[in-house]
C-alpha cells in the first residue's frame, strides 16, 4: 500500500456505517445480525445440544428448549443441574469465553481488513477454506491439550471467515437451505464453481440489486462470490461485486453487489437468511470439533465450568514447611468437603518455586492427582533469600483459566523483581486475582537469613503492589496463625463469589465507605487489612452500628489474624446501603465479597480508527487522557438493567462516569472520555428485576477486581499470522510512541527499555531499547522474534508480551500477542466406514423390544496414509461397543466395531477420530417391523438409570464430566 493509499484507507475507514462483512460486534443498521450475534447463537445452541445429549445418555430430563432465545445464563443453568434452579451459579466464565470468541472474530476485520481470502471475497474459495480447516485443526489440537484460551482465540477467527461466506457468496441466492459442508471438509473438492471466464452478474437497476445474478448462474447452480476493492475498481469481466459505499468494483459494470452484510446491503433482503445459515454452519463446525475432542473438552472450550480453580504458588525453601503443611491442610479440606458437589473445584494448578528453580507446573482436573502433587512438596534448600517467586507466579498466571484466584505462599521477597511489569501485564490481560500469604512480616526468622536483607516491610512492597493491581490481598501472618488466614482461600473458592466493594487507602486516612447489599447476596464477608492500631465500625441500612471492640454482634462477627480482620456480615434481610468506617493513619484495604449468581464481565475495546462503525478488543493499557470504552455484560440474570458504570481511582479519589449504550444480551457499550492518568477499577450498579422476595426492584452493585492502569506510552504490535509451525521463527514488528491525551505526540523524543517475554520460555530476541529520534514523527520501531522449537506440540498456546518502559521507569505499556503452535496438517482425510452387517433380529413383532438385541458391525479405517484412528465413540445409541484391530489386505489398520443394542433403540451413529482430528461417522439402523415403533426415549432412559445413579446427576452434567 502506498502512503496515499494508506491515508485514503484511514479516511474511508472513518466513514460511519462502514461495513465490509457482517458487522463485527454492534449493529446500527436496524435489526441486522452481527458476527457477535451469530457466534453467540451458535455457541449457545450447540452447547445446549451437547448438554441435552449427555443428559439423554444418562436417561435424565433436559427441558430447555433449544432455539435462538437461549441466553448464556439459561444454558449454564440447564447444563449444571436439573431441579436446583435456586442454587448459586456463576455464568461469568461462560460469558467471558463467548466474549473472547466473538472479540477474536471481530478482530479479523481489523487485522485482515484487506485480505480477500479471510472474507470469501473475489471468488477465492480454496484459500478461504484453508484458513478454516487449518484453524479447525489448531482448535482441536488446543482443546486436546486443554489450551482453551488459545483455542477460543483461533476459533473466533475461523468463525469470521466461515460466517462471511454466507454473506459474500451466492449460496443463499442459490436457494440452499443447509450449510456448505465442503468449507469444513478439506478432503472434498469444490464442484460447480463459476470459473474465471464465466460472467455472474448484470448491473443492478438503479439501486435495486434483487435480480442482478445471471439466470444462467442460478440455473446451473454455479457458486460465486462478490469482488471487493477499496482502492481499485478492477474486477474480471462480468463478475459480481460485493457492493456498498467502499467497494469501488461495484461502480464498474456490472454495477451493484450481492452482499448480505446487513439489512441495507445490496442483497439486504436476504440478510437474515444468510445470518441464519451462518449460525447453522457455525454449529456444524462446532459439532465437528466436539466429535474430535469429546464432550468434556468441548464444554470446557466453550467456557462452561461449574466452579472455580484452586491455584497455589508455593515457596518450597527450607523455612516453608509450616506453610506447605497448611496449604496441604486447607486444600485437602476444600477437596474433601466439596467432593461430589457443585462447589468442588473444576481444576487445580500447583507451582512450586525456590531458588534457583521454579516449577514444574502441575495442572489437573483430578483432585487426587493434585493431592498427590501437593503431598510430595517438601521444604528444602534455597537458604539464600530471595526466591524466584514471580517466575513461579508467571507460570500460574498463564496456566490458570482467566479470572482465577491465585494464592502465593512465601516468606521471602522476590529475586526476580525484573518480572514485575510482565506479571502486571499478565494480571491485566488474564484478569486473575493474586493474593499473597506472607509469613515473614512478623519477627520470625528463616534459617540462614542473609545479613543483607532489608526490613521485610519494604521487601514485600512488590507483592502488595501486585496484589493491589489484581484486586487480591496481602495477608501477613505469623506462621503460628496461618490456619486462620487460609479461611480466605475457602471463602474465595466457594461457588459464585462476587466482589461487592473494594478499596485500598494508601496512604491511610480515616474514611467511610458505603456499598449496596442486595437480596441475591449470601455469606457476605468483609476483609480489612491494615495496622494493628486500626479500628473500624460497621453500620446497617437501618442505622444500627457495631464497632471493632465488639468481635461478635448483631451485624458481624470477626476474627483477627496478623494484619487481617475477617468479618462475617449478617446481611440476611438487611438489603440496602451498608457502611464501613475505618480509622487508621497507615495504609489499609477493605474488600467485601459475597456469593451471588449476578455478576458482570468486561473487556476493554477500542473504536476502529475513529470510525463510528465498530470496535475491537483493546489489549494493553489505555492511554492517559484518552477515551476508554468497555464492553460490559451482566451475568447470571436476564432481567437486570445497568444504571451506572464508573471508573474509580482511590488515590484521588477520582470517579469517572461512563455513558451507557445497550447492545443486547444484557450487554452495554460504556464510553468514558478523557480519563486522567491513574489506576482505576470498574464499578457497576444496576437494578435486578428477577428478585422475587420483594415487589420493588432491587438495586445491586459489583466491582471488578483487576485495576485498569493508564499509560502515556503506546505500544502496538501485529503479527501476520497467529499460528506458528514448530521449528519456525516469527518476526513481530512493533512501534512505541509517547502520547498526550490519547494522541501520539509527534514531536516527542525518548528512549524506552524493551522486554519481550513469552510464557513458554521459547527463545525470543528483542532490542534492549528503542529510541524515538527527533523528527521521526514521534514513533520508534523495533522487531521481536519468537522461535518455536521443533519439538513443540501442536495446540500449545504461546502468549508474547512486548513491553516498553520509559527511562525513569515510571510508566510502561505493553502489547499482547497470542499464538498457537500448529504443525502443518498432512492428513486431511477422514476415517472411512464400511458397514459389514446389520443383524435382523429385531424383525419379530411379537416379542417385547427389550427382550431382543441387534448387532451392527462396521469396518473403520484411516487408510494406509492416514494418521490412524485414535478413538471411536457412540454418538447416538445406548448399546455397547466393542472394537478390535486387524490389518487389512492393503496393510492398513482396520478397526472392526461391533455394536449391540436392545431392539428398543434402533439407531446408532459412531464417530471415528484420527490422530489429526478428522472425524468420520458411521450410521446404522436396526431393521424393524413397520408397526413396532417402541417409545425409544423411555426405553433408553430406563436402560441407563440402572447403571448411573441419580445422585450423580445432582451435580449436573458438568460434575459428571469433571468430577
Ligand atoms: C438451521 O438448523 C435448524 C435446526 O436444524 C433448522 O430448523 C433451521 O431451519 C436451519 N436454518 C436454516 C436457515 O437452514
Ligand atoms: C452460605 O450461605 C448459605 C445460605 O445462605 C448457608 O447454608 C451456608 O452455610 C453458608 N456458607 C458459609 C461458608 O457460611
Ligand atoms: C429496565 O428498563 C426497561 C426500560 O427502561 C424497563 O421496562 C424495565 O422494567 C427495567 N427493568 C428493571 C429490572 O429495572
Ligand atoms: C472388514 O474387515 C474384515 C477384517 O479385515 C474383512 O475380513 C472384511 O472383508 C471387511 N469387510 C468389508 C465389508 O470391508
From TrEMBL:
<dbReference type="InterPro" id="IPR052577">
    <property type="entry name" value="VWA7"/>
</dbReference>
<feature type="signal peptide">
    <location>
        <begin position="1"/>
        <end position="21"/>
    </location>
</feature>
<dbReference type="InterPro" id="IPR056861">
    <property type="entry name" value="HMCN1-like_VWA"/>
</dbReference>
<dbReference type="InterPro" id="IPR057615">
    <property type="entry name" value="Ig_VWA7"/>
</dbReference>
<feature type="domain" description="VWA7 N-terminal">
    <location>
        <begin position="71"/>
        <end position="299"/>
    </location>
</feature>
<keyword id="KW-0964">Secreted</keyword>
<dbReference type="Pfam" id="PF25106">
    <property type="entry name" value="VWA_4"/>
</dbReference>
<feature type="domain" description="Hemicentin-1-like von Willebrand factor A">
    <location>
        <begin position="310"/>
        <end position="478"/>
    </location>
</feature>
<dbReference type="InterPro" id="IPR056862">
    <property type="entry name" value="VWA7_N"/>
</dbReference>
<dbReference type="Pfam" id="PF25107">
    <property type="entry name" value="VWA7_N"/>
</dbReference>
<dbReference type="Pfam" id="PF23560">
    <property type="entry name" value="GBD_Hemicentin"/>
</dbReference>
<dbReference type="Pfam" id="PF23619">
    <property type="entry name" value="Ig_VWA7"/>
</dbReference>
<feature type="domain" description="Hemicentin/VWA7 galactose-binding">
    <location>
        <begin position="498"/>
        <end position="597"/>
    </location>
</feature>
<protein>
    <recommendedName>
        <fullName>von Willebrand factor A domain-containing protein 7-like</fullName>
    </recommendedName>
</protein>
<dbReference type="GO" id="GO:0005576">
    <property type="term" value="C:extracellular region"/>
</dbReference>
<feature type="domain" description="VWA7 Ig-like">
    <location>
        <begin position="720"/>
        <end position="823"/>
    </location>
</feature>
<dbReference type="InterPro" id="IPR056475">
    <property type="entry name" value="GBD_Hemicentin/VWA7"/>
</dbReference>
<dbReference type="InterPro" id="IPR036465">
    <property type="entry name" value="vWFA_dom_sf"/>
</dbReference>
<keyword id="KW-0732">Signal</keyword>
<keyword id="KW-0325">Glycoprotein</keyword>
Amino acid at each position: 500500500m502506498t502512503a496515499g493509499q494508506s491515508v485514503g484507507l484511514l479516511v474511508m475507514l472513518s466513514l460511519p456505517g462502514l461495513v465490509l462483512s457482517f458487522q463485527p460486534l454492534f449493529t446500527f443498521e436496524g435489526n441486522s445480525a452481527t458476527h457477535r450475534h451469530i457466534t453467540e447463537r451458535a455457541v449457545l445452541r450447540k452447547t445446549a445440544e451437547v448438554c441435552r445429549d449427555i443428559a439423554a445418555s444418562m436417561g435424565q430430563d433436559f427441558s430447555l428448549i433449544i432455539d435462538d432465545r437461549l441466553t448464556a445464563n439459561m444454558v449454564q443453568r440447564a447444563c449444571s443441574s436439573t431441579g436446583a434452579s435456586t442454587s448459586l451459579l456463576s455464568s461469568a466464565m461462560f460469558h467471558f469465553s463467548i466474549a473472547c470468541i466473538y472479540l477474536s472474530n471481530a478482530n479479523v476485520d481489523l487485522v485482515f481488513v484487506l485480505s480477500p481470502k479471510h472474507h470469501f471475497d473475489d471468488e477465492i474459495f480454496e484459500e478461504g477454506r484453508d484458513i478454516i480447516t487449518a484453524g479447525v485443526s489448531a482448535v482441536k489440537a488446543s482443546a486436546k491439550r486443554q489450551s482453551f484460551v488459545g483455542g477460543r482465540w483461533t476459533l473466533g477467527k475461523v468463525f469470521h471467515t466461515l460466517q462471511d461466506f454466507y454473506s459474500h457468496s451466492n449460496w443463499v441466492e442459490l436457494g440452499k437451505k443447509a450449510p456448505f459442508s465442503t468449507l469444513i471438509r478439506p478432503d472434498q473438492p469444490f464442484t460447480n464453481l463459476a470459473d474465471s471466464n464465466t460472467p455472474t452478474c448484470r448491473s443492478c437497476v438503479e439501486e435495486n440489486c434483487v435480480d442482478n445474478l445471471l439466470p444462467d448462474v442460478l440455473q446451473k447452480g454455479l457458486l460465486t462470490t462478490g469482488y471487493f476493492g477499496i482502492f481499485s475498481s478492477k474486477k474480471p469481466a462480468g463478475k459480481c461485486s460485493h457492493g456498498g459505499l467502499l467497494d469501488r468494483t461495484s461502480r464498474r459494470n456490472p454495477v451493484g453487489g450481492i452482499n448480505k452484510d446487513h439489512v441495507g446491503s445490496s442483497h439486504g433482503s436476504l440478510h437474515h437468511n444468510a445470518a441464519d445459515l451462518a449460525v447453522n454452519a457455525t454449529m456444524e463446525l462446532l459439532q465437528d470439533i466436539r466429535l474430535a475432542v469429546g464432550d468434556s473438552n468441548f464444554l470446557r472450550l466453550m467456557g462452561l465450568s461449574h466452579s472455580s480453580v484452586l491455584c497455589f504458588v508455593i515457596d518450597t525453601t527450607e523455612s516453608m514447611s509450616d506453610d506447605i503443611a497448611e496449604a496441604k491442610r486447607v486444600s485437602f479440606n476444600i477437596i474433601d468437603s466439596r467432593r461430589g458437589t457443585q462447589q468442588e473445584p473444576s481444576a487445580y494448578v500447583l507451582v512450586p518455586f525456590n531458588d534457583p528453580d521454579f516449577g514444574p507446573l502441575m495442572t489437573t482436573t483430578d483432585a487426587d492427582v493434585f493431592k498427590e502433587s501437593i503431598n510430595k512438596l517438601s521444604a528444602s534448600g534455597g537458604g539464600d533469600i530471595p526466591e524466584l517467586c514471580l517466575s513461579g507466579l508467571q507460570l500460574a498466571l498463564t496456566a490458570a483459566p482467566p479470572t482465577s484466584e491465585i494464592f502465593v505462599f512465601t516468606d521471602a521477597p522476590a529475586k526476580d523483581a525484573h518480572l514485575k511489569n510482565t506479571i502486571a501485564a499478565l494480571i491485566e490481560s488474564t484478569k486473575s486475582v493474586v493474593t499473597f500469604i506472607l509469613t515473614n512480616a512478623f519477627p520470625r526468622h528463616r534459617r540462614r537469613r542473609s545479613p543483607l536483607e532489608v526490613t521485610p516491610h519494604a521487601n514485600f512492597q512488590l507483592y502488595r503492589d501486585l496484589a493491589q493491581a489484581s484486586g487480591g490481598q496481602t495477608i501477613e501472618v505469623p506462621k503460628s496463625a496461618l490456619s486462620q488466614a487460609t479461611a480466605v482461600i475457602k471463602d474465595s473458592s466457594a461457588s459464585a463469589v462476587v466482589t461487592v466493594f473494594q478499596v485500598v487507602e494508601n496512604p491511610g486516612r480515616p474514611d467511610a465507605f458505603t456499598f449496596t447489599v442486595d437480596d441475591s447476596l449470601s455469606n457476605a464477608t468483609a476483609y480489612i487489612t491494615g495496622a494493628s492500631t486500626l479500628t473500624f465500625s460497621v453500620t446497617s441500612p437501618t442505622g444500627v452500628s457495631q464497632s471493632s471492640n465488639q468481635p461478635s454482634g448483631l451485624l458481624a462477627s470477626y476474627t483477627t489474624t496478623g494484619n487481617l480482620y475477617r468479618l462475617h456480615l449478617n446481611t440476611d434481610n438487611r438489603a440496602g446501603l451498608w457502611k464501613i468506617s475505618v480509622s487508621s493513619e497507615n495504609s489499609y484495604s477493605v474488600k467485601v465479597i459475597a456469593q451471588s449468581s449476578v455478576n458482570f464481565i468486561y473487556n476493554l475495546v477500542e473504536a476502529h480508527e475513529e470510525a463510528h462503525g465498530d470496535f475491537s478488543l483493546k489489549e494493553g493499557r489505555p492511554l492517559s487522557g484518552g477515551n476508554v470504552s468497555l464492553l460490559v455484560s451482566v451475568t447470571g440474570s436476564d432481567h437486570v438493567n445497568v444504571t451506572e458504570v464508573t471508573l474509580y481511582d482511590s488515590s484521588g479519589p477520582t470517579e469517572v462516569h461512563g455513558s451507557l449504550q445497550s447492545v443486547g444480551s444484557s450487554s452495554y457499550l460504556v464510553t468514558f472520555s478523557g480519563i486522567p492518568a491513574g489506576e482505576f477499577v470498574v464499578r457497576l450498579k444496576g437494578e435486578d428485576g428477577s428478585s422475587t422476595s420483594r415487589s420493588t426492584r432491587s438495586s445491586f452493585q459489583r466491582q471488578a477486581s483487576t485495576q485498569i492502569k493508564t499509560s502515556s506510552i503506546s505500544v502496538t504490535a501485529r503479527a501476520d499470522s497467529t499460528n506458528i509451525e514448530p521449528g519456525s521463527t516469527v518476526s513481530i514488528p512493533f512501534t512505541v510512541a509517547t502520547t498526550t491525551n490519547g494522541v501520539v505526540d509527534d514531536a516527542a523524543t525518548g528512549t524506552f527499555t524493551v522486554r519481550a517475554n513469552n510464557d513458554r520460555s521459547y527463545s525470543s530476541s528483542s532490542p534492549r531499547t528503542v529510541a524515538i529520534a527527533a523528527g521521526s514523527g514521534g514513533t520508534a520501531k523495533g522487531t521481536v522474534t519468537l522461535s518455536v522449537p521443533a519439538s513443540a506440540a501442536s495446540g500449545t498456546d504461546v502468549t508474547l508480551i512486548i513491553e516498553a518502559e520509559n527511562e525513569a521507569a515510571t510508566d510502561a505499556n505493553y502489547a499482547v500477542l497470542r499464538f498457537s503452535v500448529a504443525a502443518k496438517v498432512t492428513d486431511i482425510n477422514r476415517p472411512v466406514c464400511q458397514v459389514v452387517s446389520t443383524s435382523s433380529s429385531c424383525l419379530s413383532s411379537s416379542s417385547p423390544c427389550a427382550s431382543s438385541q441387534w448387532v451392527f458391525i462396521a469396518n473403520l479405517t484411516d487408510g494406509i496414509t492416514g494418521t490412524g484412528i485414535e478413538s471411536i465413540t457412540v454418538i447416538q445409541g445406548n448399546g455397547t461397543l466393542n472394537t478390535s484391530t486387524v490389518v487389512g489386505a492393503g496393510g492398513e489398520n482396520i478397526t472392526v466395531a461391533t455394536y449391540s443394542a436392545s431392539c428398543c433403540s434402533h439407531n446408532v451413529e459412531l464417530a471415528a477420530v484420527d490422530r489429526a482430528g478428522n472425524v468420520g461417522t458411521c450410521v446404522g439402523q436396526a431393521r424393524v417391523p413397520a408397526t413396532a415403533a417402541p417409545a425409544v426415549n423411555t426405553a433408553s432412559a430406563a436402560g441407563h438409570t440402572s447403571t448411573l445413579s441419580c445422585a450423580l446427576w445432582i451435580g449436573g452434567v458438568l460434575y459428571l464430566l469433571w468430577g
